[in-house]
Write a structure and sequence with these properties.
- By secondary structure, the protein is mostly helical.
- It has one domain.
- About 85% of the residues lie in helices and about 0% in strands.
């Protein structure tokens, strides 16, 4: 998916690719819920998980590109703050 993102981001832009990635993840999440509710079996779980996990690289790279393009003069600070927020949120949610 990273290779696909690299090819399309030049034509479509980071914001549009981020939206596409998030929509795919949303659809995969909804499919996972329906797969469990309606007992679609193994393939009802595997296929949505593949799409959800596959788009993590699209969402991660394009969200960082959007953050850095918003604050180009503070790119280092923006990058470190985004990373801190990402891991900090993960820590709070796990605990």
């Amino acid at each position: 998916m990273t290779t696909i993102n690299g090819k399309f981001v030049r034509k479509m832009g980071s914001e549009r690719m981020l939206k596409i990635g998030l929509l795919i993840q949303l659809a995969a999440g909804i499919a996972l819920i329906f797969g469990q509710v309606f007992d679609w079996g193994l393939w009802g779980t595997v296929i949505p998980v593949v799409f959800f996990v596959g788009t993590i690289s699209i969402v991660g790279s394009n969200s960082m590109a959007c953050v850095l393009s918003t604050y180009p003069e503070l790119a280092g600070t923006a990058s470190s703050l985004a990373g801190t927020m990402r891991f900090g949120t993960g820590t709070v949610l796990v605990v």
